[in-house]
Amino acid sequence: MKKALIINDSRLERMVLQDQLTRLGYEVDVADEYNWLGKLTKDNFDVAIVNYTMCEITGDKIISTINSNYPSVKCYLSSSNNLASEDFNEVELAGIIKTPVTLESLDNTLNDSFAFCPYCGKSLNQNFSYCPYCGSKLIL
Questions:
Q1: Cα of 25 vs its chain's centroid, Å
Q2: Range of the domain at 63
Q3: Which residue of 7, 8, 80, 134 is 20 to 30 Å from 50, comparing CA positions?
Q4: Does any domain span residue 117?
């Protein structure tokens, strides 16, 4: 069973995503911007879904730390705002999740190969380790 960590300062958003991920067969743990690192050190997660806007820190900074210390974790940035992947070239994102998200869309996002490069935005029609357009490393 795959393990997912939801990092979000909104208890309601954590609960909704936790329910959806559980329905998709994930073992789920939740954290806020204060206790996420402790959870990561105690367990091996396959996926982290990190909210972009939190009270004390932004999600891209958390993802940067995860990328550096836990490179096998696929990180998704989530937000109710429209985010563009090209605004986050400094961090390795597996994707962006626009909330609220449907169960089908969440499933497709987590299980799909890259349909587009999260760095340059170009469409990809097959699996690549590196984007053939911009050369960025793709985390699968």
A1: 17
A2: 3-111
A3: 134
A4: no
85-105 pLDDT, tens digit per residue, is 888 988 989 889 999 999 999
Q: In what order do the strands lie in the sheet with 47-51?
A: 27-31, 3-7, 47-51, 74-79, 95-98
User: What does pTM read for this prediction?
Assistant: 0.80
Q: How many domains does the chain have?
A: 1
Question: Could you tell me if residue 113 is left (phi over 0), alpha (psi between -120 and 50 degrees) or otherwise beta?
Answer: beta
Residue 136 domain flag = no
Query: Which stretches of 47-88 are DSSP H helices?
Result: 59-69
**Does position 111 have pLDDT exceeding 90, yes or no?**
no
pLDDT for the residue numbered 120: 81
For residues 24-35, b (16+ Cβ closer than 10 Å) or e, as one string?
bebebbbbbbee
Report whether pLDDT(2) > 70.
yes
Q: Is residue 137 part of a domain?
A: no
What is the rounded CA–CA span in Å between residue 139 and residue 94? 6
**CATH number of the domain that 43 lies in?**
3.40.50.2300
* Mean pLDDT score, 37-59: 96
